[in-house]
Design goal:
This protein has 406 residues and is mainly beta. It has a domain of 269 residues: Neuraminidase, CATH 2.120.10. It is built from three helices and 30 strands. The strands form eight sheets. Strands 12, 13, 14, 15 and 16 form a five-stranded antiparallel beta sheet that branches. About 7% of the residues have low confidence.
Amino acid sequence: MQDLTRRTMLVSAAAAMWCWPRPERSALPAAGSLFRMPAAPVANESPFFASSFIDHDPALAYVHCPSICARTDGGLACAWYAGSREGGRDVAVWMAESAALNITQSTSGNRGGEHPVWGAPQRIVDRQTAMRDLDRYVDKVGNSVLFAMPDGQLWLVYVTIAAGGWSGSSLNACCSRDSGATWSQSQRLTLSPFFNISELVRAAPVLVNSGEIGLPVYHECIGKFPEMLWLRRDGERLVATKSRMAGGRSMLQPTIVPLNGDHAVAYLRNHSKTRQLFVQRTADAGHTWSPPAATGLANPDASVAAIRLSTGHMLIVFNNSRSNRHNLSVAIAEGSPGPDGSPVFSNDWQQVATLDDEAHENFAYPYMIQDATGCVHLVYSWKMKRIRHVAMNEAWILSQVRKPVT
């Protein structure tokens, strides 16, 4: 019996190693597939900044992990999870909508308009609906990412857990063809023919010219490391493959920022004791990545968000602390041409703003996009009680740069 058990364990371990994704065997986008770059924002604008909150009524005890997308009609959609606590069985993924910002250009050049107004949160999926759709046991739901495709489809990729903690998670997807009014049946994404667990999602996807979606994900079983999930649409389903960005036990929640068609950087949450934000680079549209390197920015084991502005600056939102998430800061860095012509961003970050700073509180999990008009939209978990939405343009961001980050 002991020999049989030993052989079973060896076979299982060998199967796990064989199924482990490797760059040379992963079904990556075809050669020549490049990152799709965003349109240039409106030029010669006056500074604009607005802020609003998304609230539950009645209030829920724990609100976390928002994502936001710009719909093709100009409106916004935001998704997050909320319930009595993180990992609670009553947790659900919720969504709220906001109409296009009424921002006008006056004859004096001032950009003005109303602050974003969000509708009431609507429940998209909970453990009961997930169990019904997936035909399997679901103990709880968690992180989600909401994104829009150029044809108007909305997609939600979200986490379910059958047993245990985050290391036992699986990824699932559903889509909406009517701006979030109704949703397709959820499907479980098959990422491995073996256990198919311990994959989580957090940061914004990038589009590839081939029509595929590059979604940064991360693994949390035994080790902690970043991966790229390559998604191809098949009607109301997604076909997924993945490739590993780095190994190890401490790098997770990659945030991908395209620099041009084939170059990009990835900023990584750091779970190690060094408490620094790390970065990777790719020169082949995400097929391979450089080893993680320190940026000099603090990271208290927390998620970050980043985009590249039309001016070439890198904009990042992060917790400027090595110990906690009591503040949320915005910083900017100017790139310079690297050896291959793509921009390289030094560790000389300049402070733009401190959005929140309050001892013993949590301002966490920023998620940031830039819409077709050039407006930057940021959402994050505010004290784990509300979702705060900040809208700002590049003119405002550049007008606030004042001193190095310390």
